[in-house]
Amino acid sequence: MKFNTKTIHGGQHDVDPAYGAVMPPIYQTSTYSQTTPGGHKGFQYSRSGNPTRSALERNLASIENGEFGLAFGSGLAAIDAVIKLLKSGDEVISTNNLYGGSYRLFTQVYEDFGITFHFIGMEHAANIENFINKSTKLIWVETPTNPMMNIIDIKACAAIATKHDILLAVDNTFATPYLQTPLDLGADIVMHSATKYLGGHSDVVLGALVVKDKKLADRLHAIQNASGAICGPQDSFLVLRGIKTLHLRMQRHCENGKAVAHYLLSNPKIEKVYWPGFEDHPNHIVAKEQMRDFGGMISFTTKGNNYDEAIKIVENLKIFTLAESLGGVESLAGHPASMTHWSIPKEERERTGIVDSLIRLSVGVEDIDDLIEDLEQAIG
Ligand SMILES: *Cc1c(COP(=O)(O)O)cnc(C)c1O
């Protein structure tokens, strides 16, 4: 089955044996009757499993070319489950330019449990080897990175991870499996904030993991059941519905993203545009190799690097909504230094490029003329 068919049909065979409903019913139930102790139809209690969630999990596994999907109450709950594979004394090597909430979870929660995190530049994957020791258990990769749109070579990371027998996890939220499938490139775990492109309509918070290995899946299921950070059936349904149009939305996100990136580049007030589709992007070659297109996430800075001017631009936008998050049908704009990345200390932030004038756009699927007109009036 090809990707554009999997989004709609992947793992969805016979979702309603009772009535043949085309969409899986929302099984709004906590428990399931048993004819005799243990005599159930595959579900006993909805923390451990729910048919609507299972339908989503099968679909997630399908679109990421994996074997097992797990859906969680949020993207961070999914990351939390991955870190719970580790124990005190273990070390993690992570991308230094990553989602602020992931950084917060690692440093403000798990460092207290004796896990050490190294936040490093991975644009040259070989740099990872400098931080590997016998305690290293996990490499955490986000690509494209948030919000600088750096590209990390997943295949090269996988080769290093395999050589040292370390798990490789990839946060695939920005790219989605429409653009890249990390399991095909050698990753062990793919993670999603389905809140973003997979859900696609800014109406649900949900997270996901997909793996190929049965033992790893069993351990993650055990953690999911033991910790309990599951998503409900209604939210599972919404994401499943969202994924059915993922390929259509992504195609438009990519088209509009490309047009916006080129418009910004042509505006004399703009200092720099970060978008992996430009030939002078430092890892454009890798992006071309591992991604099918370049997506709709773009960051830019204005000349003079003025904090107040950046605030004024995001306030002046009318079609782009000033809001956290990304990946919905509607265009959003954000100011990382004061919004998504405020929890990262200023010095560390600026070292990774998140300067005061940086603005991040999640280019939606509206008419491109309206989007460019809006940017033009806001930037001036
Ligand atoms: C939003 C996001 C997360 C966290 O997901 P939630 O669903 O908000 O918990 C993790 N990684 C990336 C790249 C994100 O954009």
Strand order of the largest sheet: 1-7-6-5-4-2-3
Radius of gyration over C-alpha positions, nearest whole angstrom: 21 Å
Please tell me the total number of domains: 2
**How helical, in percent, are the residues?**
25-40%
Give me the CATH superfamily of the largest domain. Answer: Type I PLP-dependent aspartate aminotransferase-like (Major domain)
Q: Looking at CATH, which topology of the largest domain would you report? A: Aspartate Aminotransferase, domain 2
The residue-averaged pLDDT reads: 96
Strand content: 15-25%
How does the helix and strand content classify structurally? Answer: alpha/beta
Based on Cα principal axes, name the global outline: globular
Notable features of this structure?
380 residues; alpha/beta; Aspartate Aminotransferase, domain 2; Aspartate Aminotransferase, domain 1; 2 domains; seven-stranded mixed sheet; five-stranded mixed sheet; 13 helices; 12 strands; 15% strand; binds pyridoxal-5'-phosphate
In words, what does this structure look like?
With 380 residues, this protein is an alpha/beta fold. It has two domains: 3-243, Type I PLP-dependent aspartate aminotransferase-like (Major domain) (Aspartate Aminotransferase, domain 2), CATH 3.40.640.10; 246-379, Aspartate Aminotransferase, domain 1. Helix content is 35%, strand content 15%. The protein is built from 13 helices and twelve strands. The chain has helices spanning 3-9, 51-63, 75-83, 100-108, 154-163, 176-179, 214-227, 233-243, 246-266, 284-290, 307-316, 346-351, 368-379; strands at residues 68-72, 91-95, 116-120, 136-142, 167-171, 189-193, 207-211, 270-274, 297-302, 321-322, 332-334, 359-362. The strands form two sheets. Strands 1-7-6-5-4-2-3 form a seven-stranded mixed beta sheet, with helices on both faces. The protein has a five-stranded mixed beta sheet with strand order 8-9-12-11-10, covered by helices on one side. Helix 5 (154-163) links the parallel strand 4 and strand 5. The longest helix is centred in the last third of the chain and has 21 residues, at 246-266. The radius of gyration is 21 Å and the shape is globular. The N and C termini lie far apart (47 Å).
